[in-house]
Amino acid sequence: MKKIYKLTDLCCANCAAEIERDVQKAKGICAASVNFITQKMTLEIEEGADVAEVLKRVAKIVRRVEPDCDMIEA
Q1: What CATH class has 2-73?
Q2: How far apart are CA 47 and CA 68, in angstroms?
Q3: Model pTM score
Q4: What string of DSSP letters covers 24-72?
């Protein structure tokens, strides 16, 4: 399942790269990419995964790296 999110207040390319790297390692994620220029994150969630739980993990990672950043479904 593919999901796209707008990342508000993403301040730098290094933070975007760190979010991408850490989200790719999260349980339930097949692939993730973060584009700093467009401020968008694309997630490929594993088939059969609990989507709500996966998104909680992803949001926690985003907040740890960039505390003022919010995920808004595109």
Answers
A1: alpha beta
A2: 30
A3: 0.93
A4: HTSTTEEEEEEETTTTEEEEEEPTT--HHHHHHHHHHHHHHH-TT-EEE
